[in-house]
Write a structure and sequence with these properties.
Layout lengths: L9 E4 L5 H12 L5 H8 L8 E6 L5 E14 L2 E13 L12 H14 L6 E4 L3 H9 L3 E13 L10 E3 L6 H9 L5 E3 L3 H9 L7 E7 L2 E11 L2 E8 L5 H14 L4 E5 L2 H7 L3 E11 L7 H7 L11
Parallel strand pairs: 4-5, 11-12
Antiparallel strand pairs: 1-2, 2-3, 3-4, 3-8, 5-13, 6-12, 6-13, 7-9, 9-10, 10-11
Length: about 325
C-alpha cells in the first residue's frame, strides 16, 4: 500500500506586501473580515523589528498558512522582558491533515517559536486557543496548559452604591505611568500596563471603542479598568487594581453596568484574583496556553505567576 505524498510547502517569514493574501486567508479560515490596516496595527506595533509572522505557501504560490506573534512589552520578576501574544494561527482547509511534524499547523507554530527564541533568553510567548486547537498544539509539543480561562459574571445591581466610584479617565493622564510603577511589584509576570500600552491597545484600537475609568481614594488614583459594551453585557476588558481594593472596584463596576443599561458585567482574572473577588466563575471555552517549543519559561512558572485579563487576547 502506497503512502500518500507529503505536501510540499514553502514556509518563510513575513515580507512587505504579504498583507493582502493574509487577510484573504483570515476570511477563508475564520469567516470574518480583517483589513490590512487592522493587521498592520496588531503585528507591526514594534517598529524596530517589524511584524513577526511565519507564512506557508503551496507549490502554486498560494498562501495556505499563517502564524503571527504580537510583540509586547512584558514584566517578569521586576525586570522588563519580551512578551509575544500568539494569534491568527490558521491553515486553509485544503492544507489540513497529516500527523506529527508533517502537520502544517505544527510546522508553522514551531517555526514561529524558534524565531522568537532567538530574541533572547527571557522570551515569554502565550496564547488563548479554544480547547480543540489547544489539544492539537499540545500534541505538537507547542502548547502547555496554564489554565482554562474562567469569567466572573456579575449581575447588575440597581441598589449598588459603591463608596469608591469609578470615573472617566483620559488615556494620556500622566498618573497612569506612576500607577504602573507602584503596582508593578505586585505582578511577577504580566504585560507592562502603562500609558503607552493603553494608548496602543485601546485608544488607537481599529476594531473597538473602549472607555477608561479610574478608581481613586482620597484624591489619589489607585487603579483603572477598561470597559466596552457588547449588547446587554459590560465587558471589563482590562484592569490594573490593588488586590485589597478588588471587591470595592467590582462593586463600582456593578453600578456602572446599571447606569449603562447592561444586565451584567464580565471580567477575566487569574486564579488568585478570582479567589479575592468572591464571585462565581464560569468556563469560557478558552485555554490560557504557554508556548513551550524552544522557549525558556516553564509552564509551572506561568501558571503560578501570570496576571492576565481579556485584554491579553486580540479579539476583545
Amino acid at each position: 500500500m502506497m503512502m500518500p505524498a507529503i505536501p510540499d510547502y514553502l514556509i518563510r517569514e513575513y515580507r512587505p506586501g504579504d498583507e493582502t493574501a493574509i487577510v484573504e486567508l483570515f476570511s477563508a479560515v475564520f469567516g470574518a473580515s480583517m483589513t490590512i490596516a487592522q493587521w498592520r496595527w496588531k503585528y507591526a506595533a514594534d517598529r524596530d523589528s517589524g511584524p513577526w509572522a511565519q507564512l506557508a505557501f503551496n507549490t502554486a504560490g498560494r498562501l495556505v498558512g499563517h502564524a503571527g506573534a504580537v510583540p509586547l512589552r512584558g514584566w517578569r520578576q521586576g525586570q522588563p522582558t519580551p512578551f509575544f501574544q500568539i494569534g491568527d494561527v490558521m491553515v486553509h482547509p485544503d492544507a489540513r491533515g497529516q500527523l506529527g511534524g508533517r502537520n502544517l499547523f505544527t510546522r508553522l507554530a514551531r517555526a514561529l517559536l524558534t524565531a522568537l527564541a532567538e530574541q533572547g533568553p527571557q522570551v515569554f510567548a502565550y496564547g488563548f486557543p479554544g480547547r480543540r486547537p489547544f489539544l492539537l498544539g499540545q500534541y505538537a509539543r507547542v502548547y502547555g496548559e496554564i489554565e482554562p480561562a474562567l469569567a466572573l459574571r456579575r449581575p447588575a445591581h440597581r441598589w449598588a452604591w459603591p463608596w469608591l466610584p469609578l470615573r472617566p479617565l483620559a488615556w494620556d493622564d500622566a498618573r497612569l505611568d506612576r500607577l504602573w510603577q507602584r503596582r508593578a511589584p505586585d505582578h511577577p509576570l504580566t504585560l507592562i500596563r502603562d500609558r503607552d500600552y493603553l494608548h496602543w491597545r485601546y485608544a488607537g484600537n481599529p476594531f473597538h471603542i473602549y472607555r477608561l475609568l479610574g478608581l481613586s481614594l482620597a484624591g489619589r488614583l489607585i487603579g483603572w479598568v477598561v470597559t466596552r459594551r457588547e449588547e446587554a453585557r459590560l465587558l471589563v476588558i482590562d484592569a490594573l487594581l490593588p488586590r485589597r481594593w478588588l471587591r470595592p472596584a467590582l462593586a463600582a463596576l456593578d453600578r456602572i453596568a446599571v447606569l449603562e443599561g447592561a444586565s451584567e458585567s464580565i471580567i477575566w482574572l487569574p486564579p488568585d484574583w478570582r479567589a479575592v473577588a468572591g464571585s462565581a466563575a464560569q468556563p469560557t471555552g478558552v485555554i490560557v496556553a504557554n508556548m513551550v517549543w524552544a522557549l525558556p519559561i516553564a509552564t509551572a512558572e506561568a501558571r503560578a505567576n501570570l496576571y492576565y485579563t481579556m485584554g491579553d487576547l486580540d479579539i476583545f
